[in-house]
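Quick one, probably user error.
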């Protein structure tokens, strides 16, 4: 969709927060849950938080980028930092083959406002049989993302395997991204001199930086 590409371009000129939750299902029960928060604060600050839960086990990853510096923390371990290099990226792939894709568009109400709902429904073939990938995107009157939802699974019989929902906020007032590791200025011990005059005392503090 051209509207989808436009929404990404518009996001580049805004500060925003995206909250995403993805559940993995087996027999209708959630066996794995991943919550992600991604934030961007103009001009050059971003934050990513991922929390994954499988059974009783929970893991957490935090990333903060400010300019060319990246700060990283896994679980509640100490923060580490590194200089970012150009060309770093992530990729993913999709297994199986695509049989057909259907596109639809309609006007709906979401979050109390009128929005365009764009839907892409894909049917494919996997080793387990026919699969479906149902992706819906809601875009506001300004062309910005409001919400996305994606459900994937087997078609016959219909079995949902993953379900993801993302919500977007723009220019949130509480958005603040700071470096978790502060640079400290080394200060030598101060030397204090006490001088006495006839009718007064005063301190002269000298700091050797």
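Nope, works fine. Designed sequence:
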């Amino acid at each position: 969709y051209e509207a989808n590409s436009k929404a990404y371009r518009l996001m580049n000129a805004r500060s925003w927060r995206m909250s995403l939750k993805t559940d993995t299902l087996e027999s209708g029960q959630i066996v794995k849950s991943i919550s992600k928060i991604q934030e961007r604060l103009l001009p050059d600050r971003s934050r990513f938080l991922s929390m994954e839960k499988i059974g009783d086990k929970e893991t957490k990853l935090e990333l903060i980028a400010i300019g060319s510096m990246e700060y990283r923390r896994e679980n509640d371990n100490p923060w580490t930092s590194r200089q970012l290099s150009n060309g770093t990226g992530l990729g993913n792939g999709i297994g199986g083959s695509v049989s057909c894709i259907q596109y639809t568009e309609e006007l709906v109400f979401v979050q109390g406002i009128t929005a365009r709902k764009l839907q892409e429904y894909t049917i494919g073939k996997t080793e387990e049989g026919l699969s479906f990938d149902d992706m819906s995107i809601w875009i506001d009157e300004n062309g910005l993302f409001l919400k996305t939802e994606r459900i994937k699974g087997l078609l016959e019989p219909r079995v949902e395997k993953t379900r993801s929902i993302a919500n977007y906020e723009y220019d949130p007032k509480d958005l603040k991204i700071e470096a978790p590791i502060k640079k400290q200025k080394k200060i030598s011990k101060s030397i204090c001199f006490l001088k006495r005059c006839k009718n007064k005392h005063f301190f002269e503090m000298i700091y050797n930086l």
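The radius of gyration is 26 Å.
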